[in-house]
Each structure stands twice: as C-alpha cells, then as structure tokens.
Sequence to fold (610 residues):
Amino acid sequence: MEEKKKKLTYTTLQNLRYALSKWWGWDSRGLVQAFSRIPCVVLIPLMGILLPREVINCVTEGAAYGRLAVTLVIFTALLCALHMYDKYIAQGKLFAIGLKNRMNYMYLWAEKIFTTDFPNIESSGGQRKKEKALQFLYQSSAGGEAVVDCVVGICGDALGLIIYAGIVSSIHPAVLPALVLMSALIYIAGRIIKKLELGIRDESADLERKLNYLFAAPTDFAAGKDLRIYKISRWFGGLFSIYFPAMIKLCARNELWWFADDVLQGILNLLRDGACYLLLIRMVLEGSITPGDFTMYFGAVAGVSQWLNDITKQVEKINRFSVQCCEFRDFLEMPDGFVNDGKECLDTEGNRAVDITFEHVFFRYLDAEADTLRDLSFHIRAGEKLALVGLNGAGKTTCVKLMCGLYHPTGGRILINGKDMSKLSRDEYYRLFSVVFQEANFMPFTIAQNVSGAMEDMDRERVKSCLELAGLWDRVQKLPYGMDSLLNRELNEDGVELSGGERQKLLLAKALYKKAFVVILDEPTAALDPIAENELYQSYGELTEGRTSLYISHRLSSTRFCDRILFLENGRITETGNHEALMAAKGAYAHMYEVQSHYYKKKAEGRPAV
Fold:
C-alpha cells in the first residue's frame, strides 16, 4: 500500500524533456521529419471545412463554371499533396522512427540488467521495477514508442485549436467557453480514471510477472521431463486458474471505468451538436450567415471539440507515458554501489593467484529477519586450495556471491591482496574470478563462443586445448560443425544437447580459458554421483594448480585434496583444518563425514541406506 501512494519521481514536463533529448541524440533527422507532419495535421481538416463553403457559395451566388472548376482543382491538388506527404511521414517514417526509439530504450533496459548490482535484479523489489520498466517497451502503443506520435499529435492539435477557435469565436461569444467546458469535463473524468488505473498498476505488474512465468516454464526443455512424469501440469493449471481470473478481473474493472468515460463523452457531444445546430439554423434564417458559412461554422464547431478532445486524449497519453517513463527511469537509476568510476585497479602483474581475507563479515538479505553470515572471518592464501563445506542453508553460496562481488557485506569487509573490495573497479574485480555455479547456464551460441566468452575475437587453438584438458574434445570433434556447433535447441533447430557430465566438462573448459586468478566451484556437480564428482574436482585441482581455489560441496569426500577445509554452520566458521585434523577432532565435520561414508558404503554393498 505504501508504494501505491508514492509520488512519481519526475513531472510530465521533465519526462518529455528527457524523451526529446534522447530522441534528438539518437535520431535528430527523424525528429525534424516527425515535426514536419504538423502542418498536414492542421491543414487537411481545415481544407475539409473550407472546400464545402467555397463550393456552396459558388453555387448560391451563381458563379461561372470556370470559377467553380478552378476552386475544385486548387483544393483537390492541395489536399492530394498534403495527404501524400502525411501518409509518407505518418505511415512510413514515424513508424520507423518510433521503432528505432523503442529499440534504443530496450538497449538501455537490457544494459541495466547486465550491469546493475546483482541484488537489484535478484530482489523482489528489483524484479517488480524491472517488469514495470518493461511496460515502457512492450509495443508501439507503450511509452517508449508512443511518445513520438504523442508529441507530434499534441503540437498539431494545439495549432489546429488556435485556428478553429478564431473561426468559432465569430459565431457567438458563449460558444467557445461552452466547448472548452465540455472538454474540461471529459479531461477531468479521464484523470480520475487514470488515478484509479494507477492504483492497480503494482498488482497488475505482479500478476503479469507470475503469468509470464506460467506461460514460459512449460516450454523450458529442462522442465519437460518433470512436467510429464510428475503431472506438474495440474499444478500449473491450478496456479493459472488463480492468477488468470484475477488478471481478467483487474482488466475488466479497468475497461469498465473507460467505458463510463466513453458514455460521458457521447452525452456531451450530443448536447454540443444539438445546441450548435439550433444556433446556426437561426443565423441562416436571419440572414446573418450564408449557407456556405453554415457548413464551415458547423465544421469548425465540431473541429474545435475534436481538437479539444484530441488534446485531452494526447494529454492522457502523455500522462500515461510519463508514468511509464518514471518507472523506466526509476529502474535505470537504481543505485549501484559497485561501479568503475574513480575506483582502484588491483595490481596483479606477473601473478597467477591472489590473497583473499574475510574480516568480520556480516550479511543479511533484503527484507530478511536474520543475518545469513555472522562475524565471518577467514584468510585464503594466494595459490591455496580451500574447501568450504557444511549442511544446506549454512551460507556457502552466499559466501561465494560475496567473494565474487555479486553482493557486498552489510558489515565487515573483504580484502583482495590487502585492498578493500568496495574500493576496487567492478570490471577489474570480476576479471579475477572464474566461477562454476550450481546451475550450468550456456548461451545459445557455439561451443567455442561459450568457452571463450567472445563472439568473434577468440583464440581457437586455446579453445581446443581447454576442451582437450577438460576431456570433451573427443565428443566435440565428432559433431558436424565441431566447436562451431550451436547449443540450445530452443533457439537453434540443430542445437546440440549435452549430457550432465558433458555440461560439467564444458564448464571446466570455460573456467580454464579465462585464466582467472581465483577459481570457485559452487556445488556444480550436485547431479553427478560421488565418484564422478570427486574425479571432476580432482581435475579442477590439477588443471588450476597455482591459482587460488575455493571448492564448495556438501559431499565431504570430494574436497579431501584441498590444503584446508572450513566447516560452515549457521553462517559461522565452526571448524577449520585439513581432513585428517578435522577427523581427529571428532566434531561436526567428522560426524557428517562418517554419516556420508556409511551411506555410500551401504549403497556400494547393495544394502538399503538409512
């Protein structure tokens, strides 16, 4: 409720200035072309009320056919020229200009996602801002593209209103104020409805995000097996039956409000036309205006109302644009603490490893009730192999996210070669780490591009060498396109699907190619059996010799080759030492190891493991 009452960050004028400055910077020529349509917007309807007047006057005055023909030719030629230019700009240029604007805004949106602090994207508040900002880019009727048509339209409407108001004012002093009053009532009604619409915007964005997930998740190949075997489709259907009716209810309520607005406009327009007919008919009968003037004045009255209505609609569109623009700018302006400007670079010349220190580190997730990490202190020497183990939920992955710079401590500090991480350049800091997370995420590009992280400028021999070291080259070279084979069948019809073990090997090749100073494995082998996991960890250990390495696992046997083991429990280091020392201490580590070894021994002997 608190967020719904929050005032918009920027005024409509500030947002228009922002959009026009962006527009000018992206396509100044397009801006000039768009504004060149304004004379067409005004002159075409003006010709439409002047032509009948001239024709009727020629007929009623008994003018020669030559005069009538010349009048028709001049007006027709002007109308044809104006219509042709208007179609060229409105249907050709403006669409392309608006689409180009939307693509540029979409680039800004995507760039923010790729570069912003990780908590901004992972948190529920950041997710909501991201979805609301996306509504600025959805389609041509949304703010990012619609502003092109809105700005041109309101300028043309304003100029047309001035001209028509001058014509209408000569009928009767009360006509123009009455028309303005009717349009004001329509505008006020629209503003009230807009406020009602804004009140349900957050709820609508949340429902839309949930529905998008329900639509997208069943098409994910990785989820296809579970959906079929475990009948998860019923669960999706149950959620869909909850969220979709709620979304329909919101939309129906919104449409009902706008229907009431349309009814009000219809009633006011009927009153306007009836009163103007009576007034103009009386003036014709009294002889104060000609029949030709009657058609012009009646057209002008309708035109003034139309210009006013158009202005109110354009204002509503601009107000809608302003709301969307505020949400878009709020997303782009989410504060980032880990940036590059004015930050130090770490001197790593000639080194293969770095020294890492956690110094009384505390961390609490946004809106969490308790700290995930509590007064965490440890030191990883340059080139040391360190294992971080513990039960699920102990804080191991959080520790990795902090070390990689995805999060920053809420208390204490992290030092890299003695320098506070918060004072280091973000991109330089990320360059230090090669991380293999639990989820194996590959881009829909070639195997070589996924290994190298480069689209074109890559060392292909080095890619091959890394694939050989990871034990994947024999599989890759048998593919029709070798290392240039595409991954991801969702986007590429002939995409390659790798097995679980092959995906892990590809991750290893990727980690080797980067030659990072720190290698981190965050339980990427959870889907593998203990023997395969141990072999893969040993491969990492051998192939990354001399680099600082951190291994995360809940299988304690996989990290026996490490120099030191830290046992994490409830966000704290409770035990530290090598495997032999921790087993001799007979603490939590030894107990957990004995339970796991007992389990695997039972499995190996074919007896049920309890």
